[in-house]
Structures are given as C-alpha cells and as structure tokens.
C-alpha cells in the first residue's frame, strides 16, 4: 500500500469539514464571486476615522463630553446609571420609610413627600426640590432621572413586586422618589406670580379636584393658595399626581383655622366668592365695589378686642386670633344676610389684593366666608349655566374667573 494511515485520516477529516460547512451555510458557500484586491501603496491609505467620513459622529461625541453624566458607570445595556445599593426583600429601610409617608400625621411630622414616576420626579428636580432617596427596580427607569442638580442622594434598588405592593397606582412605574417638602418661603422664591390673586380653598375633600385647583392656579400665575382646616392633604399622593408639578411652583399654606385667616390676607384685600346659588343682579354698567361698613354689629369695640388676642403659629410667629368666626350668634347674622351676586364678567376687578374663595360643591358657601367678605368688602360672582345644571366643578369655576381677571388686567396694561 502506497498510502499511509495518517494520510487517510487527514483526507476523511477534510471531507467531513466540507460537508459540515455545506450543511451550516447552504449550497452557495462555494459559489461566491472573488473580490478583486488592488495593490495600493501604503502612503495613500486613508483611515476610516477621518473627519470627512463621519462629521456627525464627531459632533455627537463633542456634545457628550459636555454632559454631566460623564464619569458615571454604564451597565451591560449601555445605560448610564449612578452607583446604587441593592436591598433585600422587605428591607426595613424601605418599609419604614413607606409606612411613614403613607400616614398623613407621620408625613407632616417628617416633612417629606413621596413621588411616583420619572416624569413627576424630574419635574420636582427641575423646580429645585431637594431629593433624598430613590427607590427603583430596573436600570432603565434610573437612567432617565436627572441627577445633575442633586447631591448626596441615596439610591436603592428594590424588587419590582415590592414596589408594586406599596405603589399607589394601578400600574407601578417602577421608581419612587422621597423628597423634602418645600417650605412656603422657598416656594415664594421659586414661583413667579403674574396676577395679584390669593385662592382660599374650603372643604375641598376630593384629591383630584384639589390637585387640579393647584395646577390651574399655578398655571394662571396666582400668588398663593390658602387651605382651611378640613381640606384634603395637598401632599397626598393623589393630589400630587393631579397637580402635575403645580405644587412646586406656587406657595401652599395648609390647615388654616378660620380664626387665623385674617393673618394671611392683606387688610386692603377684596373677597370674591364663587357661588352659583344666588340670583344675578342685572346692571347696565359695571358695578362699583360694595361698602359693607353698615352691616349690623351688636358687639362693641371692647368686646371685639377681648375676642381678639395674639398667639404663635407653627413657625413661632405671632398671629392674631379672631374668635368671632367661632361664635354661633355672630355667624347667624351672616347666614340670613342677603349677599348680592353679580355675573363674573360684569365685575371690574381691582388691580391688586384679590382674594377668590372656592368652596366644596356639596357644602355650599360657609357663613364664615360671608362674614370675611363683609369685613373686607366683596361680592359673590356667578357663572351662568344652561340645561338646568346646578353647579360647576370647583376647579372649572375658579379657572374661568381667574382668566377673566387675567384678561382684564392685561387689557388695562395694554391701555396704559
């Protein structure tokens, strides 16, 4: 035999490789056309990374060098995520924090608020609200959060099922942020009032309604919002969700007693009550402001002085207390008082110190706000309705009147 055994093995092995390649890559693997290669001198070879080849890629790389996220690590999917700590199931650092933020009393004591969803969290960060802790389940949600203005933020990864159990939404967004509740002073700095209007909300119990009021008042450019005791907590999750970031752009003062209300409005203010229960007084011309100095008062000045005294508020600031707002005999006179009501578009609103009262839809106008309007000089305003409808939503009524005020003030400015 002229052939050796190793040669036979090599021949069989080469045939097996050819058959295997044909099975994997198909029949056309050996039918490819040859590629013609030119012998180009080395001095004429141009690199692919030349600026004439990909100017757009170089432009984007220059923009990325200015990004504040440079230096942060990337995960396996290429997402830029800051360093974080992974929590185990039912970790006390997560459950205790969420338990505190679910209770109104504990939430007010801690001075914190909980936001869900990357859009609301980024909105709060853009407004300058201080972020303390982030809970997330996936790197995708974390990479969308803007951390460029925040420092010393605790970032904790939690199982999605754990977030879902504590979420207030039907579909958990997979990310939660714990923020320090902004003070009234800070919100005064952040807000940019356009119209001299203060909103008084009384007996607003629906979270979505109060959130919409805060949102529209901030959008119209009001000065601040006063919430009497009995309104829903403005920092509750449903109110924050419906507010769409309005909480961070207008000062909100909560839990105000009626006996303290005079400390939060100017003495030269004019009260306007949004009410649809009265009959509109027809007038051919724009009515002048009504003077209520002749309203019946049985108490003398000395008795009023006894009922007015000074105390300290939650910020240790001295405030006056007017106990006449808790006197049934005093309030009974204002319940029977026929208060004039005007069409909202027929009133000539003042240029400053406007106070607009918005009450609950079911309880109607409180006698205490009628007394407040009489003390400061004001009137009821009504929006006409059709099809035998009794009332409008409180938020819609307030918004219509606010933009009428804004329209009048803008026309006065143009005329000047």
TrEMBL record:
This is rRNA methyltransferase 3, mitochondrial. InterPro entries: Alpha/beta_knot_MTases (IPR029028), MRM3-like_sub_bind (IPR053888), Ribosomal_eL30-like_sf (IPR029064), rRNA_Methyltransferase (IPR051259), SpoU_MeTrfase (IPR001537), tRNA_m1G_MTases_N (IPR029026). One of its GO terms (molecular function) is RNA methyltransferase activity. Pfam families: MRM3-like_sub_bind, SpoU_methylase. Keywords: Methyltransferase, Transferase. Residues 96-177 form the MRM3-like substrate binding domain. One of its GO terms (biological process) is RNA processing. It comes from the Eukaryota. SUPFAM superfamilies: alpha/beta knot, L30e-like. Residues 197-279 form the tRNA/rRNA methyltransferase SpoU type domain. Belongs to the class IV-like SAM-binding methyltransferase superfamily. RNA methyltransferase TrmH family.
């Amino acid at each position: 035999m002229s052939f050796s055994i190793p040669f036979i093995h090599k021949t069989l092995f080469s045939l097996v490789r050819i058959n295997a390649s044909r099975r994997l890559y198909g029949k056309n693997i050996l039918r490819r056309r040859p590629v013609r290669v030119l012998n180009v001198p080395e001095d004429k070879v141009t690199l692919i990374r030349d600026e004439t080849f990909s100017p757009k890629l170089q432009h984007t790389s220059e923009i990325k060098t200015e990004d504040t996220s440079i230096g942060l690590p990337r995960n396996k999917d290429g997402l830029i995520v800051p360093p974080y700590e992974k929590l185990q199931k039912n970790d006390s650092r997560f459950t205790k924090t969420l338990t505190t933020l679910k209770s109104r009393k504990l939430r007010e004591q801690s001075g914190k608020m909980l936001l869900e969803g990357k859009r609301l969290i980024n909105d709060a960060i853009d407004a300058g609200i201080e972020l303390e802790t982030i809970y997330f389940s996936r790197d995708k949600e974390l990479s969308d959060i803007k951390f460029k203005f925040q420092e010393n933020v605790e970032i904790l990864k939690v199982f999605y099922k754990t977030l879902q159990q504590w979420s207030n939404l039907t579909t958990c967004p997979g990310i939660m942020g714990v923020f320090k509740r902004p003070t009234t002073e800070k919100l005064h700095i952040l807000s940019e009032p356009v119209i001299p209007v203060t909103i008084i909300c009384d007996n607003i119990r629906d979270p979505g309604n109060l959130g919409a009021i805060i949102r529209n008042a901030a959008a119209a450019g009001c000065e601040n919002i006063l919430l009497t005791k009995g309104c829903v907590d403005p920092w509750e999750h449903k109110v924050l969700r419906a507010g769409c970031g309005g909480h961070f752009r207008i000062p909100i003062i909560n839990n105000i007693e009626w006996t303290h209300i005079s400390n939060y409005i100017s003495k030269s203010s004019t009260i306007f009550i949004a009410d649809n229960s009265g009959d509109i007084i027809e007038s051919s011309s724009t009515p002048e402001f009504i003077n209520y100095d002749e309203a019946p008062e049985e108490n003398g000045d000395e008795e009023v002085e006894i009922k007015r005294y000074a105390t300290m508020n939650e910020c240790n600031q001295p405030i006056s207390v007017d106990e006449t707002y808790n006197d049934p005999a005093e309030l009974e006179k204002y319940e029977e008082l026929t208060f004039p009501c005007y069409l909202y578009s027929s009133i000539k609103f003042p240029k400053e110190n406007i106070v607009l009262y918005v009450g609950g839809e079911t309880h109607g106008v409180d006698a205490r706000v009628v007394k407040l309007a009489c003390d400061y000089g004001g009137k009821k305003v009504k929006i006409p309705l059709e099809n035998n409808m009794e009332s409008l939503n409180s938020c819609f009524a307030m918004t219509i009147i606010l933009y009428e005020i804004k329209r009048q003030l803008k026309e006065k400015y143009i005329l000047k």
